[in-house]
């Protein structure tokens, strides 16, 4: 069944609204679209100007998925697109036509495509579609089992304190999956990936029993991997307030430092779409930096 709708003056056709995309939770495509529509006021500032990569799950989270960077030809003309170089493209493209989610109609359009996860880089493009210098520094904290997000919170506090000494204010969020991320506004003092790597190595040296700064999997059990490489311009990180393709419709959720410091169990920091909406209604955007 197809349903024509008008969103902020744009005409869209929504389809398969009753399809269940999260079977264990009974969460349908209609609920995905509703979530993204309602969270848009706090989500859009974190997407605007950033080339979009999505993970699409047309048959739900238990089905096959695919990454999509290139906006296909049938993308509506009113969706903003920017043509950017694509070094290392797996499809041998020299450039990619990225979509940029600047408004609610574009966000609803992608939600209707079952683009459950929204990933963006740490830089934006200007009005002419030219890439700007990175404006965000990010650390992805990834626990190696049996470590969990609880161990990530301990490392996050250490990292926060180091960044504070460097004059940077860190903001924490869950990844919506197993780990969490720290963000800070970036002032281009040096190349961000090299800077993040240096900080990760310092912390690893100080806390070798808790932290690892290299990707080698055999070194990671029971420790937290500080992934500094997310600052590579070619990489993306899940956006604040994006859904994740887990058993439940979990959300990459901004946190308070009090929540980080008081975390005792992994479930303390699991938030679903309804949870995220309730938090924003009560607290506003804890990531209100964009």
TrEMBL record:
<dbReference type="InterPro" id="IPR052171">
    <property type="entry name" value="NHEJ_LigD"/>
</dbReference>
<dbReference type="InterPro" id="IPR014145">
    <property type="entry name" value="LigD_pol_dom"/>
</dbReference>
<dbReference type="GO" id="GO:0003910">
    <property type="term" value="F:DNA ligase (ATP) activity"/>
</dbReference>
<protein>
    <submittedName>
        <fullName>Bifunctional non-homologous end joining protein LigD</fullName>
        <ecNumber>6.5.1.1</ecNumber>
    </submittedName>
</protein>
<dbReference type="InterPro" id="IPR033649">
    <property type="entry name" value="MtLigD_Pol-like"/>
</dbReference>
<dbReference type="Pfam" id="PF21686">
    <property type="entry name" value="LigD_Prim-Pol"/>
</dbReference>
<keyword id="KW-0436">Ligase</keyword>
<feature type="domain" description="DNA ligase D polymerase">
    <location>
        <begin position="28"/>
        <end position="287"/>
    </location>
</feature>
């Amino acid at each position: 069944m197809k349903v024509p709708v008008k969103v902020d003056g744009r005409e869209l056709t929504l389809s398969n609204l009753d399809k269940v995309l999260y079977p264990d939770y009974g969460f349908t495509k209609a609920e995905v679209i509703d979530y993204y529509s309602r969270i848009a006021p706090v989500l859009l500032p974190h997407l605007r100007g950033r080339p979009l990569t999505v993970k699409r799950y047309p048959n739900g989270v238990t089905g096959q998925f695919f990454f999509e960077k290139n906006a296909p030809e049938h993308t509506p003309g009113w969706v903003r697109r920017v043509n950017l170089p694509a070094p290392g493209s797996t499809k041998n493209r020299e450039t990619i036509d990225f979509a940029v989610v600047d408004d609610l109609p574009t966000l609803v359009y992608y939600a209707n495509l079952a683009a459950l996860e929204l990933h963006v880089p740490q830089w934006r493009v200007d009005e002419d579609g030219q890439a700007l210098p990175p404006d965000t520094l990010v650390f992805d904290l990834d626990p190696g089992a049996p470590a969990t997000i609880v161990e990530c919170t301990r490392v996050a506090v250490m990292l926060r304190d180091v960044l504070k000494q460097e004059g940077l204010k860190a903001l924490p969020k869950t990844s919506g999956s197993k780990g969490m991320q720290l963000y800070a506004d970036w002032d281009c003092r040096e190349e961000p990936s090299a800077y993040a790597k240096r900080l990760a190595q310092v912390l690893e040296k100080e806390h070798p029993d808790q932290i690892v700064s290299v990707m080698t999997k055999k070194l990671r059990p029971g420790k937290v991997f500080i992934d500094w490489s997310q600052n590579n311009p070619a990489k993306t990180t899940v956006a604040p307030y994006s859904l994740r393709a887990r058993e439940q419709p979990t959300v990459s959720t901004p946190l308070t430092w009090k929540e980080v410091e008081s975390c005792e169990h992994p479930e303390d920091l699991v938030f679903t779409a309804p949870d995220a909406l309730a938090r924003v209604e009560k607290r506003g955007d804890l990531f209100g930096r964009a």
